[in-house]
């Protein structure tokens, strides 16, 4: 029996749980601060809140934080790790990850995603369905690459940034920290920290 605790009974959490089952985790419980009002997330039980998870951590072989907010996901990951929890990493069997890529703990890689050689994915990132991260990329902590987004070779993405669904990033581009790249954008030049960009080519929205 491999017991996994997932913090965050969200839609994203359902995909995390489904992916975890495909990776051989066979006992999955959710925790969410909406408990006890929220008791289930699809077929999986919600059994407590963050405080409950902190108390019950030794009963689990691993934990994942399935919270969409990059900032909160990172905060909770670090809190649970500091409390002695074992951070799991999930790579869906239908994802293709180079043996020469470095995937840090707490990251989830969903079905259809491709990660190529010499790429480094740091702690707590989400590589969502069918995205691709090509060779020599560096993806910071708690980054989210949305479904179908494409990163060319040598792209750097700073901590807590979010690349929207279907966006494309030109090779060797550096995107700062806490950046939001809009759905369908084409990023063709470097982006500073703390901005939102969108469009083709991507321009600053705010
Ligand atoms: C499995 C999953 O579901 S994973 C989740 C995947 N989801 C995503 O990737 C979402 C990405 N988010 C977006 O693209 C959002 O539209 C954002 C973050 C860029 C902007 O969101 P908001 O701040 O709410 O902006 P809002 O919708 O009010 O739009 C503001 C303006 O920007 C424009 N705009 C918004 N998004 C985009 C975009 N992706 N590309 C071009 N223009 C855009 C709007 O048309 C609007 O223009 P207007 O002022 O001329 O009418």
Structure description:
- Pfam families: PglD_N.
- This is Acetyltransferase.
- Belongs to the transferase hexapeptide repeat family.
- Residues 3-75 form the PglD N-terminal domain.
- It comes from Stutzerimonas decontaminans.
- By secondary structure, this protein is an alpha/beta fold.
- The protein is built from three helices and 24 strands.
- It has helices at 11-22, 50-56, 70-82; strands at 3-7, 27-31, 40-41, 44-48, 62-65, 90-91, 96-97, 102-103, 108-109, 114-115, 120-121, 126-127, 132-133, 138-139, 144-145, 150-151, 156-157, 162-163, 168-169, 174-175, 180-181, 186-187, 196-198, 203-204.
- The strands form four sheets. Strands 6-9-12-15-18-21-23-24 form an eight-stranded mixed beta sheet, with helices on one face. It has a six-stranded parallel beta sheet with strand order 7-10-13-16-19-22, with no helix packed on it. Strands 3-4-2-1-5 form a five-stranded mixed beta sheet.
- The longest helix has 13 residues, at 70-82.
- It is globular.
- 42% of the residues are buried.
- It binds acetyl coenzyme *A.
- Acetyl coenzyme *A is lined by residues 128, 146-147, 164-165, 180, 182-184, 196, 198-199, 205.
